[in-house]
Amino acid sequence: MSTTTNSTHAPLFEVCLDSVASAIIAEKTGGKRIELCAGLMEGGITPSAGLIKTVKTKTSLPIMVMIRPRGGDFCYDDDEFDAMLEDIKLCHTLKVEGVVFGVLLPDGSVDKVRTARLVEAAKPMLVTFHRAFDMVKDPFEALEDIISIGNIQRILTSGCERSAYEGLDTLVQLSNRAQGRIIILPGAGISERNVNKIVEAMGAKEVHVGAGGTKESSMEFRNPYCSMGYAVSAPEYALKVTSASKLGGMIQRF
């Protein structure tokens, strides 16, 4: 039995990526928006100005830039928060379409004061509240807090689980409670095997995917005694890049 959905209801595919090569692949394969990050092994941090500018030059897709000064939690000190404000200023200069951020309080609730400051600084760019949402103590309270701030177009979430498929029940509840006031953007672990189920269950008009793959490094000489990362890190000569076959396989199911 076919699992292909009527193409008139095909969702917009936002592709999370961290390189120019991946951005080009995403556009050629049918992605419609980019979430641009660095440090995907840390869940995404703010990319460099050079990467942002080059991706804008090489593709025509709208770019949502991750504003996250470090990996780890989403409770930031004053210096980290100032860095986030400066990165938003840079995004204005580079004329990107939107920014992606999330700030929490130590008690696991949304930091409404600081989030509102970031939203104000971002105007008129689009804003996504990212997967900091998945670390809140009460997702339904957080939903209302984020909506109350205003000028935030979407929440990227896995339903507070490791993957969107595992969190599907919560995603459906969030979407129903949002009642069109904000977009619930499902993300994390979405693949060709589950994308139809997630989209159909939520009635999702947008999905956030990684479609990660690797390509072989062009390096011929390879030093076996030295590595640039921690002990648990990506292989030195296997470069992360968006997989056209994975992304295309998901898009073609609609």
Structural write-up:
The protein has one domain: Alpha-Beta Barrel (TIM Barrel). Helix content is about 35%, strand content about 15%. It contains 8 helices and 10 strands. The model is unreliable at about 1-10 (pLDDT under 50).
Short précis:
The chain is an alpha/beta fold and 254 residues long.
List the main descriptive attributes of the protein structure presented here.
8 helices; TIM Barrel; 254 residues; CutC-like; alpha/beta; single chain; 8-stranded parallel beta sheet
Largest sheet composition: 8 strands, parallel
* Average predicted local confidence, pLDDT: 92
Order of helices and strands: EHEHEHEHEHEHEHEEEH
Q: What CATH architecture do you see? A: Alpha-Beta Barrel
Count of discrete domains: 1
Main structural class = alpha/beta
Q: What oligomeric state do the depicted chains represent?
A: single chain
Task: Set out the fold topology.
Elements: E1 12-17, H1 20-29, E2 33-36, H2 49-58, E3 63-66, H3 78-93, E4 98-101, H4 112-122, E5 126-129, H5 139-149, E6 154-157, H6 168-178, E7 183-186, H7 195-202, E8 206-209, E9 212-216, E10 238-242, H8 244-251
Parallel strand pairs: 1-2, 1-8, 2-3, 3-4, 4-5, 5-6, 6-7
Antiparallel strand pairs: 9-10
Helix pairs in contact: 1-8, 3-4
